[in-house]
Here is the input.
Amino acid sequence: MTSSTEDAPTAVERRINELTALLDKGLSDGIGVGDSLGVRCAELGEGRAVYTLRPSPAQANAMLTVHGGVLSTLMDTAMGSSVFTRLPDATVYTTLELKVNFVRSVALDAGELRCEASTVHVGRRTATAQAHVYNAEDKLVAHGTCTCLVQSFG
Here is the structure.
């Protein structure tokens, strides 16, 4: 016989489910970067997140390429999500510092971008993460790190 505790979701599963529900609600309600910029969650795991973005004219800078702020938002979203999956229940985060290195420009008609993020350190007060953005040809577009403030409500 299986006990009910074996069927209960783990802390990581609860966090992933919570984050997925928030992202889905944002898309259904037309709010957030998923709706406004087209940032989509492709994968979540413990300390890991993969997000995608399809370039469009709505993301243009003055040089008619994808704006660096859009790429930074993609990375911040993915890194924050990777941190969120490692936090205990009743704990939130906010980005304190974001460092982005742009390696190459992205055309507005380019294929889908993929941002892979992972945690580096998750402590009681701060967390750090790193991310890499790749274009449709799997070439590095940008990479960066973030530091997050962690706050518990429990």
Observations:
- The beta strands are 40-45, 48-53, 91-102, 113-122, 126-134, 140-152.
- The two ends are 33 Å apart (CA to CA).
